[in-house]
Amino acid sequence: MELHVQDLEYVYHQGTPLEVKALHGVSFFLPQGEVLGILGGTGSGKTTLIKNLNGLLRPTSGHVLIDGIDSHACGPGLRRRIGLVFQRPERQLFEETVYRDISFVLRRFTALKETQIRDRVATACNLVGLDMGDVADRSPLALSDGEKRKAAIAGILVNEPEIVVLDEPAVGLDPPAIADLIRFIEEIKASRKRSVILVSHDMERFLGVMDRLLVLNNGTAVAWGSPADVCRDLAADRQMRALLPGLALLVHDLQEAGCPLEPRGYRVADLVDQILRLPGGPN
Ligand SMILES: Nc1ncnc2c1ncn2[C@@H]1O[C@H](COP(=O)(O)OP(=O)(O)OP(=O)(O)O)[C@@H](O)[C@H]1O
Ligand SMILES: [Mg+2]
């Protein structure tokens, strides 16, 4: 699936005294199989933007095009094609058991047989690193926060969405759980079949897996492109700098100082290697 967003505007409570213009003409493009990061501070419009992508909110003006077709024309099936894992996934879990929760949409809205449903649930659990044998019969409420997030992601993956949207997926996760999440995103990316949209106010850990980065500020897209290009565009602006991941700033500032570094996926080991090999370095 290719996603084009053109001049998207969204106004909450339009025409009332409570009117809030949350998005001001945002445009971007996501080819199939890529990972897009949406970075922005609190209240910058990230969640509003992704809700406009799958029809949970309807753009006030502008367009969301899915393979060139306006999202209005895609019908309710769009919510399964663009699967959204919310900022607080525990609000997405409501069934008595984890298995029933993850399989809810398949049982309710498809004609799949129980064995097919089991297979899809097992595949999704495997992908997110959830041991189905261990959690299937437990209450979702009895899971840890990290496991809840995995269960919520699995509940979206069983629908085989073409785009997986993760709103602040790293909040509350410890570093090993974030590493699991990154491995999962890399696996999806390697399949080239699905795209991923990652929404966060802190992209440090996700820099290496992202193909493109969109930066929102007060509902406006202030930069869009490869992480390195976005960083180059925004690093000189004091306010915008604060949003950028430290590792990207370090690479950028060293480059500006004349150090010939290549971001190449922003892997710490690779950057250390490049620095050690610089002329005059220890090696
Ligand atoms: N239901 C709503 N009614 C009115 N205004 C809203 C509503 N939801 C969000 N807003 C406003 O829209 C703007 C963007 O909010 P949004 O939730 O999209 O930001 P965000 O970037 O996801 O923030 P956060 O990082 O805190 O999750 C904010 O000014 C917010 O107050
Ligand atoms: Mg949000």
What does this structure look like?
With 283 residues, this protein is an alpha/beta fold. The chain contains 12 helices and 10 strands. It has helices at residues 46-53, 78-81, 98-102, 104-109, 114-128, 132-135, 145-157, 175-191, 227-234, 238-241, 246-256, 268-276; strands spanning 3-12, 20-30, 35-40, 61-66, 69-70, 82-85, 163-167, 195-200, 212-217, 220-225. Strand 7 (163-167), helix 8 (175-191) and strand 8 form a beta-alpha-beta unit. It is globular. The mean pLDDT is 92. Magnesium ion (MG) binds next to helix 1.
Provide a short characterization of the protein structure:
With 283 residues, this protein is α/β, with parallel strands linked by helices. The protein has helices at residues 46-53, 78-81, 98-102, 104-109, 114-128, 132-135, 145-157, 175-191, 227-234, 238-241, 246-256, 268-276, and strands spanning 3-12, 20-30, 35-40, 61-66, 69-70, 82-85, 163-167, 195-200, 212-217, 220-225.
Give the uncertain stretches in residue-range form.
none
Distance between the termini: 46 Å
Could you spell the SSE succession in H and E letters?
Answer: EEEHEEHEHHHHHEHEEEHHHH
Number of strands: 10
Number of helices: 12
Can you tell me the overall shape? Answer: globular
Q: Helix coverage percent of residues? A: 25-40%
What is the CA-based Rg, rounded?
A: 20 Å
- Average pLDDT value? 92
Strand content: 15-25%
Structural class: alpha/beta
Strand order of the largest sheet: 6-7-8-3-9-10
Report the sheet with the most strands, covering strand number, pairing sense and barrel closure: 6 strands, mixed
Distinct small-molecule ligands in the complex: adenosine-5'-triphosphate, magnesium ion
